Amino acid sequence: MNIALKFWSGYVRATHRWPIIATIVPFIPVVAIWSIVANSGMFPRAFFPAPVDVMRSFISLTYKGILPDYLQDSLIRLLFGATIGVALGIPLGILIGSSRLAHRICWPVLLFFQAIGDIAWLPILLIWFGFGLTTMTFVIVYTVLFPIVLSTVLGVQSVHRDLARAAQSLGASPIRVLWEVTLPGALPNIITGLRNGLGYGWRALIAVEIIVGTSGIGFMMFDARRAGSTVEILLGMIVLGTLWYIVDAWILAPIERATGQRWGLVTS
Amino acid sequence: MKTLSLKNLRKTYFDPYAGSQVTAVHDVSLDVEQGEFVSVVGPSGCGKTTILNMIAGFIPYTGGEILIDGNLVKGPGPDRGVVFQSFALFPWKTVLENVGFGPKMRGVPKDERDRTAREYLALAGLSHAADRYPNELSGGMQQRVGVVRALANNPAVLLMDEPFASVDAQTRMTLQEELTRIWQERKPTVIFITHDVAEAVFLANRVVVLSKGRVLDQIKVDLPRPRVWDHLIEDETFKRLSAQVLQMVRAA
Fold first, then answer.
1. ipTM confidence
2. Cβ of A169 and B135 within 8 Å?
């Protein structure tokens, strides 16, 4: 009992000092079970590779420069599409959230197009734009746009009416009310929308790369299937998970801590 | 000099569910002198908050006139500072930034508006909280910020809509005493909406009793200042005035 408590206290202190430990430790049993199953001889290694094989493939593909190149291609596509999506989504969300008329006109249309999933657009996009960046960007923008618009609308509507009134009574013009009250008030929701949007966009990108791509992580995985390389497929999956974790933990979560949680708008 | 003047003020609106016109405020006329503290009391539904929202410019009126220093009210503006029951502090701004918000909207440079804000924070005994965020403060402290934020903008009229209704009873008494002290120091013109009769009498020079969208009666309060609960709670004049107002409100 005493030893367990000591161990626990040591773990808490270590994770406090190096937070990365708290991220890695939960994966130890996952990797261990995977390793045991792969080494047990239940399945042929070429069919069910072990963690070591994936690690070796990671080193070799990184060394050859293929993995960094593909990763870069995927990230640039996501960033490009996401930027356009955010630039369209936030203003649209503010408009729909603050104007009853705009809400009435846009809402049904928005829900209709939201239902047509990103991938459902691919057949017509391939005919219109062919196998290229335009098609990929369209799909990502489309995927990112809806969560951002819907969350921004929700965010704008959640700002207490008295806050806008207080600002007006202190002499704020409509533009200042938007900038000083509506936007910061909607920010926690906008960030949630951004998180969902980027998550969906990332998934859509992989799907599109599998169908359209000539490079990128999705392409790498699909290409590996043709070659029958299970190692590279698994590597691709691990890269996807890791990358998303980094985006979420290192970029989105700190923004949330610095804004909504600090202001007491969301409980941490 | 009349700072605020309501002339035959009326508010009707269409209720789409009932399918008919509803009258919230029938016909209210009221003059408020500069530096006067007027409490408005009445049972719920008497139209007191509607009147305040019309003076503030948050909702349009359908008849009569509202004049501030002779100018017709057409919408919200910095000449009417508002203190809300919900406090309505900006959660993403520090206490100092909240109090400096009005001057900021007028284009006052940062140094100067920070100085003004600190001066007003000192007035409410909040100097130590300048760099905190509203959610880190107690309800009583938040509303102190709400009051000085409105005052720091130097409004012609201070409109207070049941500002102390959501704090605990002890804090409320302290806030009431502080408000009378600040009023004595700065002499702002105040319209104070409340349903608490003792509060209305304690604070005001004049109590206006509303009933069903009309002014039922007005009572002058000549109690000496500074007003402190420890003294007034036993005071015969205070008790008599409170009882008188209470009877009117209950009969209204």
1. 0.93
2. no
